[in-house]
Automatic annotation (TrEMBL), chain B:
Annotated compartments: Cytoplasm, Cytosol
Gene3D superfamilies: Translation initiation factor eif-2b, domain 2 (3.40.50.10470), Translation initiation factor eIF-2B, N-terminal domain (1.20.120.1070)
Family to which this protein belongs: Belongs to the eIF-2B alpha/beta/delta subunits family.
Assembly and oligomerization: Component of the translation initiation factor 2B (eIF2B) complex which is a heterodecamer of two sets of five different subunits: alpha, beta, gamma, delta and epsilon. Subunits alpha, beta and delta comprise a regulatory subcomplex and subunits epsilon and gamma comprise a catalytic subcomplex. Within the complex, the hexameric regulatory complex resides at the center, with the two heterodimeric catalytic subcomplexes bound on opposite sides.
Main location: cytoplasm
Source organism (scientific name): Hibiscus syriacus
Listed InterPro entries: eIF2B_alpha/beta/delta, elF-2B_alpha_N, IF-2B-related, IF_2B-like_C, NagB/RpiA_transferase-like
SUPFAM superfamilies linked: NagB/RpiA/CoA transferase-like (SSF100950)
Name under which the protein is recorded: Translation initiation factor eIF2B subunit alpha
Pfam families linked to this entry: IF-2B (PF01008)
Example of a GO cellular component annotation carried by this entry: eukaryotic translation initiation factor 2B complex
GO molecular function: guanyl-nucleotide exchange factor activity; translation initiation factor activity
Length: 638, 401
């Protein structure tokens, strides 16, 4: 574990600086920076985690934060190195870790502007850091002298500096690496790789290499280019951050589902990165302005033409994205499986680019895929969980694995997830749920849930005598599909629309519902209309059973279906297919005063739910947090 | 202050008179080859053996039962009154101890006869006897044997939830205790037996804990409505009386086995003011009542309880009148069951004596228990502490997952 981490740290000196730069940093702090630039050396040691621990606390000035130098040889190497260049910097690590020596004070006076940029760079991940506050030190200029000209030139071009203090929101970031940035990354990564490769001999040779490459970092800082954070870098950064605390990891790793789409500036930024050119619908319902809503049907041809141009996107992922967009893959499980299959394909065809590490690059790659998929259709909670799982598996890959081994491990992990968490889970749910069906029951279901369908078919196979009421609603009418499959198997069914649910509920004895996700306050987040059915059932004292695999459980709490939801195509509700005579809204759709709302999900409060059937058994909705807790443990740290 | 275990309440009270149940006379273990007499069928599968024994323990005699008991006495002249009763239920129990092969069910029945021993404890003791009698040489063999035994026990009386819960609990203990994996077989075996033996103790201790926990809820001058005869409830009330609390108790009659009569008897001995109600007078008297206190046959995963018939309606009435409903039950009654409605639990049938002949055309509802949903319960007093109904499932998940 340790060597891998350190390798990662090596390749990105940005983070290493972060912890030690503060807006109000006293001068002696900043002058103690140059050695820290060399941290890559030190990061070969286990203390890298410790460093990471500190990095977020930007304001804390305490010298205690500074990690002690663990590697003596590198330390001395560095020291000698610097001593050649500038006697002023000939202080030792140990001196720095404790209170800083006074001799540094005079150094501060002669700080050159080149340092500044480095600081800014580090601040790119922490918006509050102001570049001007940290004076640059002359040390860096000195070190440039020390460098071979080729490297320094290269490094100079590679300055990764972000002046716009946009926070690193982990929103979807397009993979559009600028050349300079990429080069900077590669530069660092090459050093990292070299270090990693020379396992036995890394102590001396690799360390020196790292020293040089690290030295380039501060020096290259000359060119301030104001480009955006590129996706890969942010992802890499995320990974690094992920090391220090699982909570943080979770927050960052999870594709941020809640970009507020009424925040125009952000939407603009997101749009610039977007692969999918979505056109916003103009008239959105007031309450739901924060949700993305696009004109449907416009992007598909555009995307299709792009199919061969988008080199970073794997064709399989691209295909799945298009399927999401067109609505060919709809259900939660189907989407999740399709996504994972695509990722599996992508992993299979993946080869680590030269000078990159598999773990970081693949994570970045997956992140870019995910953001592409989000553009096609917002992720569901279950997919978020699945992605978290995959990223976790990637992060936890042992470094000793070769690329092919790592890929095989990941692919089998993906298969295992699909198999255990979805397919077997469904079977277990069916097994539990069937015990709740008695002869003479009338079962009501809403929409088309794959698990509920399996339950009904299985109960039928067992010879139970029961009737099914399939309740459906416009515009999807997915219930018809379920109805068709049930009737074909010989079940006796009743089909009705949700409008009639209060009439039909009298004769119903059990309500079986699927769910997109179950939140930790017991709220069931499911196809729009589910809440209505559950409430009617509750009013009639009919038990409501929600069937949901445990991987769809989410720790979030949601009280309504407004703050997080998905908007469907408004055209779907304004028009009725095959009914030309219903044309009252023709020409009205773009009217300023008309707002069409086609919600996709709703939240059913736990009061209306009698039982949740999961792969862990039958539980009351109040026990969801327990499952979430237990499940996380095995999910993330297995 | 916070305690992990509710047993602190016992420690706080320095009265540690461990009222261990009278140990069995002898175990009669000739340790023959363990042939699980699966052929041994419950002689009256339509009548819940569980409720039969309870009736026997409570010594409430219905006329129907008397007639049967007389018949049994004439068949086998046994002085022991409990085995007279038992003779009617399971004639197989009579032949126990002879050269007959060892049977869990016999073992279980003999344990069950002890009036102070809960059903679950009897089941666990019976399973311990299986371990003792077993000639297994590996843990796996023993596990399989135990599983078989518990299955046959469960099959013998499917109506008894506490029997099932007890078996599950013990099997869970056997399969889950990781320490068992590492030590050698013999010590693991003796550990299991020891554990099983401790269970009886635990069950008695649990009652004491519950009684202590309840004391905070019984205040001077309160009126408590009690339904059925529960050893835990009796213990609670006894402790309250010993603590010089002034309260009065309304006992429902508890037809048809008239368990309320028995409870009122016991309470009268303790000088607690008791009023006996017929079962249908619950709503009538509810406005005088301050709290409802019931025991439970089982606490199910939803947090609801399965208890003697009539509990549900009492809970409904008290809910509509905003009176708290408290349940006192030991934690080994937690069962992995999730009934959705009344009919979801298999009915435990019993004979009902109406005193007059009933025409054969008239159907009689014979179920002995009902299910009270968690919605109508206020708190559960268990030896794990005072729980809200929703915690039950959490505890169960941690126990079984």
């Amino acid at each position: 574990m340790d060597p891998r981490r350190s390798a990662r740290t090596v390749s990105d000196p940005k983070v290493r600086q972060v912890g030690f730069f503060t807006p109000a940093a006293p001068p002696e702090r900043s002058c103690s920076d140059p050695p820290r630039q060399l941290d890559p050396i030190q990061s070969l040691s286990p203390s890298s985690a410790q460093v990471n621990d500190h990095s977020p606390s930007v304001d804390s000035v305490s010298p205690v934060m500074i990690p002690p130098p663990p590697h003596n040889n590198s330390d001395t190497l560095f020291r000698t190195d610097l001593q050649v260049t500038s006697p002023k910097t000939a202080f030792s690590y140990s001196a720095k870790t404790v209170t800083l020596p006074t001799e540094n004070e005079d150094v501060t006076s002669s700080l050159s502007p080149s340092r500044k940029v480095v600081t800014v760079k580090s601040s790119s991940s922490y918006p509050c850091v102001k570049a001007s506050s940290v004076p640059a030190s002359e040390l860096t200029t000195v070190s440039v002298v020390n460098l071979p000209p080729g490297i320094s030139e290269k490094a100079g071009g590679a300055s990764v500096e972000v002046l716009n203090d946009r926070p690193v929101s982990s929103k979807s970031l397009k993979e559009k690496t600028s050349k300079a940035e990429r080069r900077a990354l590669q530069e660092a990564q090459r050093a990292a790789k070299a270090a990693a490769k020379a396992e036995g001999t890394k102590a001396s040779s690799a360390a020196s290499k790292v020293v040089t490459s690290a030295n380039t970092k501060p020096s290259k800082a000359a060119k301030p280019s104001s480009q955006k954070n590129d996706g890969s870098q942010v992802a890499a950064f995320e990974k690094k951050v992920g090391d220090r605390a699982p909570e943080k990891d979770r927050k960052k790793d999870a594709p941020h589902p809640r970009m507020q789409y009424d925040d125009t500036s952000r939407v603009e930024k997101a749009k610039k990165r977007a692969v999918v050119k979505q056109t916003e619908v103009r008239n959105r319902v007031e309450l739901f302005r924060h949700l993305p809503q696009y004109e449907h049907g416009t992007q598909l041809p555009d995307l299709e033409t792009k199919f061969f141009e988008l080199d970073p996107m794997h064709p399989a992922v691209y295909k799945v994205g298009l399927q999401y967009l067109s609505g060919d893959i709809w259900g939660g499980n189907a989407r999740c499986i399709a996504m994972f299959q695509a990722f599996k394909e992508a992993i299979k065809d993946y080869s680590t680019p030269p000078e990159k590490t598999l773990i970081r690059d693949l994570t970045a790659r997956i992140s870019s895929y995910v953001s592409f998929l989000i553009e096609c259709r917002p992720l569901s909670n279950s997919m978020g969980n699945a992605i978290k799982f995959l990223k976790n598996r990637i992060a936890k890959l042992p470094l000793v694995l070769s690329e092919s081994e790592a890929k095989a491990t990941l692919m089998s992990d993906v298969d295992r997830f699909i198999n255990e968490k979805i397919i077997i889970a469904e079977k277990v749910i069916v097994k539990h749920a069937v015990t709740k069906i008695r002869d003479g029951d009338v079962l009501l279901t809403y929409g088309a849930s794959s698990v509920v369908e399996m339950i009904l078919l299985h109960a039928h196979e067992l010879g139970k005598q029961f009737r099914v009421v399939v309740v459906d609603s416009r515009p999807k009418l997915e219930g018809q599909l379920l109805l068709r499959r049930l009737v074909r198997k010989g079940l006796s069914c009743t089909y009705t629309h949700v409008n009639a649910v209060s009439c039909i509920m009298q004769e119903v004895t059990r309500v079986f519902l699927g769910a997109s996700s179950v939140l930790s306050n017991g709220t069931v987040y499911s196809r729009v209309g589910t809440a209505c059915v559950a409430m009617v059932a509750h009013a009639f004292r009919v038990p409501v059973l929600v069937c949901c695999e445990a991987y769809k459980f989410h720790e979030r709490v949601q009280l309504d279906s407004i703050c997080f939801n998905e908007l469907g195509n408004p055209e779907a509700i304004s028009k009725v297919h095959g009914r030309e005579d219903i044309n009252y809204l023709d020409g009205f759709v773009n009217q300023e005063k008309l707002q069409l709302l086609n919600l996709v999900y709703d939240a059913t409060p736990s009061d209306y739910i009698s039982m949740i059937i999961t792969d862990y058994g039958m539980i009351p909705p109040t026990s969801v947090p327990v499952i979430v807790r237990e499940y996380r443990r095995e999910h993330l740290w297995s | 202050m916070w305690w992990r275990s509710a047993s602190f309440i016992l420690d706080r009270q320095q009265e540690q008179n461990a009222a261990v149940p009278p140990n069995p006379e002898s175990l009669l273990l000739s340790s023959p080859p363990p042939s699980m007499a699966d052929s041994l069928q419950n002689p009256k599968p339509d009548i819940s053996a569980y409720y039969q024994t309870r009736a026997a323990h409570h010594a409430v005699v219905t006329s129907d039962w008397l007639a049967q008991a007389h018949a049994a006495v004439s068949i086998q002249t046994d002085d022991d009154d409990s085995s007279v009763i038992d003779g009617k239920i399971a004639p197989a129990a009579g032949g126990r101890g002879g050269d007959k092969a060892f049977s869990v069910i016999d073992e279980f029945n003999s344990w069950r006869k002890q009036p102070d021993l809960a059903e679950a404890v009897a089941a666990i003791r019976a399973l311990a006897a299986v371990i003792k009698a077993s000639q297994a040489t590996t843990m796996m063999e023993l596990e399989i044997e135990l599983k078989k035994a518990s299955d046959s026990l469960k099959a013998w009386d499917t109506t008894s939830i506490s029997l099932t819960a007890g078996c599950d609990l013990f099997i869970r203990y056997v399969t889950r205790t990781s320490a068992l994996e590492y030590e050698d077989f013999n010590s693991a075996r003796s550990r299991l037996i020891e554990r099983a033996e401790k269970f009886g103790e635990i069950s008695c201790k649990a009652r004491r804990i519950i009684a202590m926990l309840c004391q905070d809820f019984i205040f001077d001058g309160c009126t408590i409505l009690v339904h059925g005869f529960s050893r835990v409830v009796l213990e609670v009330l006894r402790t309250a009386a010993q603590n010089k609390k002034h309260f009065r108790v309304f006992c429902t009659e508890g037809r048809p086995d008239r368990t309320g009569l028995r409870l009122s008897n016991e309470l009268a001995k303790l000088d607690v003011p008791v009023k006996l109600l017929i079962d249908s007078a619950v709503a009538y008297t509810m406005d005088e009542v301050d709290m409802v206190l019931v025991g439970a046959d089982a606490i199910v995963e939803s947090g609801g309880i399965i208890n003697m018939m009539g509990t549900y309606q009492i809970a409904l009435v008290s809910h509509s009148m905003n009176k708290p409903v408290y349940v006192a039950a030991e934690s080994y009654k937690f069962a992995r069951l999730y009934p959705l409605d009344q009919k979801d639990v298999g009915p435990a049938l019993r004979t009902i004596d109406f005193g007059v002949p009933i025409p054969s055309k008239v159907e009689v509802e014979k179920s002995a228990r009902d299910y009270t949903p968690p919605l109508y319960l206020t708190l559960l007093f268990t030896d794990l502490g005072v729980l809200t109904p929703s915690v039950v499932s959490d505890e169960l998940i941690q126990l079984y997952l």
